[in-house]
């Protein structure tokens, strides 16, 4: 092979052929990609899937079980699929913490489909008996659920469309239902939800069953008999790509990878061992198969995601653009630790698990300056995330008559963020959350802070229908007043009881 200059190579796009030009030291697929089967359909071809489930599958493929090539499906944008197609579906994952990094090229994704343009192929793929696993990362809002009840949102326009046009579905549930309907009988399928929801598999089962009952009288029975929906807890911090992350990956690879993912070294996947048919040996990548995932889910959703959301709103209001920036500010970092401790008090340890050590590791992960994990990214979709991450802990604490000073302040910060849409410096914040307008309207039309707190807690779509205690509303009102008068800094530096 002719040596090529680093500059020329950097402009060459990653592809099967260009693999030969990738720098030494970069790991590459340890199996023959041309012989891969198509055993998995994945819905939601974002960075998280590519840096998480796809890597566990990569490890199973490297063990020689070549059934598990992934057909990646995008539901909302053709961009990732187009990028991957131009690279023979190869992409890189770079794990980074501080100065240390490790880069590999992943070969597990073998095809990509954009559902609105390739609906028939998507449905055929889910119906194919050679596919025995469907995984999904479509974000919390991608399941058309009402966050406070986890029931089907019948007002969701995609659901209404799909119930009227079951053969032309647009929603995750509609597409799954159409694929399952077409599967031959006796071809077991496991659908593994990999989004951050408590009891995510059970929730998806409920939503799918509700949708099926309304769309096809035979479908609920088939789902009951032939489809397994194991719960799973997924964990890896994977910021959205940026020009800087793509440039970094290209420098490390020696070729240009427009689908490169840069993420943290930590990864965890705990899966309920309840599959209907064959599955990849994800244990090869370190997955833990267990009988009960719920304690792991509660621990992760509250301690990692719950603290993340608090840092996101504190960061948006206080002008901290990334999680590492929050951790570098003593008052903001102390606030994050306080929120984590408030949530820690509500978490029961999974059997044999050292939760305090987990908390210490989390804080170390949050300090990772090599990742630009933006608070604006984590702040999105709060009306879906907060009912999962904070409200169960808050509800349990209220029932036990316990105040959670840091968590309650975080809640006030989120409401203040929605109410004003501005940072402490007056910068306009881009709020990306389809459910936010209704809550923000209530907050903005309230006569005073006490009314705003009551209005928010009374917003059943997020806070549920069970009334919240008046003392909580009073504390929230005081925090809202402090935020309005003195900004987020006032709450960050406030001692636990005041
Ligand atoms: C984050 C998660 O964006 C968010 O809401 O809290 O994506 C988080 O980084 C992952 O769940 C970590 O496993």
UniProtKB/TrEMBL annotation:
Classification via InterPro entries: 6-PGluconate_DH-like_C_sf, 6PGD_dom2, Mannitol_DH, Mannitol_DH/Oxidoreductase, Mannitol_DH_C, Mannitol_DH_N, NAD(P)-bd_dom_sf
Its Gene Ontology molecular function terms? oxidoreductase activity, acting on the CH-OH group of donors, NAD or NADP as acceptor
Please report the stretch or stretches of sequence annotated as the Mannitol dehydrogenase N-terminal domain. 39-283
**Which Pfam families does the annotation name?**
Mannitol_dh (PF01232), Mannitol_dh_C (PF08125)
**What range does the record give for the signal peptide?**
none
Query: What name does this protein carry?
Result: Mannitol dehydrogenase
* Positions of the Mannitol dehydrogenase C-terminal domain: 292-463
Species, as recorded: Cupriavidus necator (strain ATCC 17699 / DSM 428 / KCTC 22496 / NCIMB 10442 / H16 / Stanier 337) (Ralstonia eutropha)
> Kind of enzyme, top EC level?
oxidoreductase
Q: Which residues cross the membrane?
A: none
Keyword Oxidoreductase in the entry? The reply is: yes
Name the Enzyme Commission number(s) assigned to this protein.
1.1.1.15
């Amino acid at each position: 092979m002719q040596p090529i200059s680093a500059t020329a190579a950097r402009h060459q796009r990653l592809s099967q052929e260009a693999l030969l030009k990738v720098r030494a030291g970069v790991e590459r697929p340890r199996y023959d990609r041309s012989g891969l089967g198509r055993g998995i359909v994945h819905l939601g071809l974002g960075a998280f899937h590519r840096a998480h489930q796809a890597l566990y599958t990569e490890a199973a493929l490297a063990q020689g079980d070549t059934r598990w090539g992934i057909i990646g499906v995008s539901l909302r944008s053709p961009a990732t699929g187009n990028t991957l197609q131009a690279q023979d579906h190869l992409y890189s994952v770079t794990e980074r913490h501080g100065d240390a990094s490790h880069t590999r090229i992943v070969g597990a994704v073998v095809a990509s489909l954009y559902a609105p343009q390739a609906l028939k192929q998507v449905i055929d793929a889910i119906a194919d008996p050679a596919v025995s696993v469907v995984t999904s990362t479509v974000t919390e809002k991608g399941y058309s659920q009402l966050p406070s009840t986890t029931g089907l949102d019948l007002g969701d326009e995609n659901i209404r469309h799909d119930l009227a046009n079951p053969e032309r579905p647009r929603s995750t549930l509609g597409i799954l239902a159409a694929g399952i309907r077409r599967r031959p009988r006796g071809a077991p399928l496991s659908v593994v939800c990999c989004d951050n929801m408590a009891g995510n598999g059970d929730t998806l089962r409920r939503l799918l069953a509700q949708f099926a009952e309304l769309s096809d009288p035979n479908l609920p029975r088939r789902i009951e008999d032939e489809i397994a929906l194991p719960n799973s807890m997924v964990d890896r911090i994977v910021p959205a790509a940026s020009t800087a992350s793509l440039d970094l990956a290209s420098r490390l690879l020696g070729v240009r990878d427009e689908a490169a993912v840069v993420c943290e070294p930590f990864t965890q996947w705990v899966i309920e061992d309840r599959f209907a048919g064959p599955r990849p040996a994800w244990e090869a990548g370190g997955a833990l198969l267990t009988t009960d995932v719920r304690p792991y889910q509660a621990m992760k959703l509250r301690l990692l995601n719950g603290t993340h959301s608090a840092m996101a709103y504190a960061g948006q209001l206080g002008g901290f653009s990334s999680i590492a920036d929050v951790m570098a500010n003593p008052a903001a970092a102390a606030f994050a630790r306080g929120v984590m401790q408030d949530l820690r008090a509500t978490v029961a340890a999974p059997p044999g698990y050292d939760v305090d050590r987990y908390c210490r590791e989390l804080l170390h992960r949050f300090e990772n300056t090599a990742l630009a994990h933006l608070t604006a990214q984590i702040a999105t979709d709060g009306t879906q995330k907060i009912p999962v991450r904070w409200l169960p802990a808050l509800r349990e604490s209220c029932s036990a008559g316990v105040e959670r000073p840091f968590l309650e302040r975080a809640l006030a910060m989120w409401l203040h963020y929605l109410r004003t849409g501005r940072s402490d410096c007056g910068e306009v914040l881009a709020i990306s959350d389809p459910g936010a307008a209704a809550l923000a309207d209530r907050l903005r039309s309230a006569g005073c802070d006490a009314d705003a707190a009551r209005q928010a807690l009374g917003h059943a779509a997020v806070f549920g229908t069970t009334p919240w205690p008046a003392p909580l509303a009073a504390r929230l009102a005081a925090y809202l007043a402090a935020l309005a008068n003195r900004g987020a800094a006032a709450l960050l530096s406030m001692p636990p009881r005041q």
